[in-house]
Amino acid sequence: MILIIVSGRSGSGKSIALKTLEDIGFYCVDNMPINLLPKLANTLTKQQISAAISIDVRNIPNNTFILKNILNHLSNFFTYKLLFLDANRNTLIRRYSDTRRLHPLYNKHLILENAIDKENKLLQPIRSRADLIIDTSDMSVHELSETLKIHLLGNNKNLKIIFESFGFKYGIPINADYVFDVRFLPNPYWDPNLRTMTGLDKPVSYFLTQHIEVHNFIHHTCKYLTLWLPMLESNNRSYLTIAIGCTGGKHRSVYITEKLTNYFRTKGKNVFSRHLTLKKK
């Protein structure tokens, strides 16, 4: 029996996560009072049913001691995973503006922005105990669904390696296990002919291949990751997220991400790539 507790900030995708889990065979309960968790988990265990329980800010006790006791009680009798979905403030504001839905903490004395900030503070105790945190700020519905499947179905498969490019100007991805900074490499941005292109375009690729430091970085990064991958794979983890960052996330980080992805794919690894800044366009 597998129990997954799904929590996170309102607007971050909890409903999508629950729907995805239901599609892959989990019995799902939405917005369940957390004090009922032990009783439900006990019933599901007897019936050998894997379940996913969604908990939002309204169902979390104000007393963190109560929350701690409930989760500790669960861990004494069950193996559970706590999934926390997050998104940055601006993304949440935009999503609420697009859907015109009311935030669960919204009232006439609390505007949307303040409701989002208050919820973030209230959720910190449960976020701090999360086994997996997924930042959905730059994800589509489909990408969130696929990301969940990669993370949650990976236990019976090989380690999933996710290489992702990003721009430091937008912030470091919070879900990254490793972060590599490639801002020291020659920058195609300063060539007017390459500025509007990306690391996926051949002229940018050609520019970067002309610099020995680019080749050296790729070589030594592959060597470093190859050295430690066996230990990561034997550590019973299902996924590994490696973020590659440059200034804007369009040229160098994209090119390096693709090169690393292709290298480890040729080595038979289960590899995926995504480009966070390019998806913003």
UniProtKB/TrEMBL annotation:
Modulates the synthesis of GlmS, by affecting the processing and stability of the regulatory small RNA GlmZ. When glucosamine-6-phosphate (GlcN6P) concentrations are high in the cell, RapZ binds GlmZ and targets it to cleavage by RNase E. Consequently, GlmZ is inactivated and unable to activate GlmS synthesis. Under low GlcN6P concentrations, RapZ is sequestered and inactivated by an other regulatory small RNA, GlmY, preventing GlmZ degradation and leading to synthesis of GlmS. One of its GO terms (molecular function) is RNA binding. Homotrimer. This is RNase adapter protein RapZ. Belongs to the RapZ-like family. RapZ subfamily. GTP binds at residues 56-59. ATP binds at residues 8-15. Residues 265-281 are annotated as: RNA-binding. InterPro entries: P-loop_NTPase, RapZ-like, RapZ-like_N, RapZ_C. Residues 1-155 form the RapZ-like N-terminal domain. The keyword NAD does not apply. Residues 160-277 form the RapZ C-terminal domain. Keywords: ATP-binding, GTP-binding, Nucleotide-binding, RNA-binding. The keyword DNA damage does not apply. It holds the Pfam family PapZ_C.
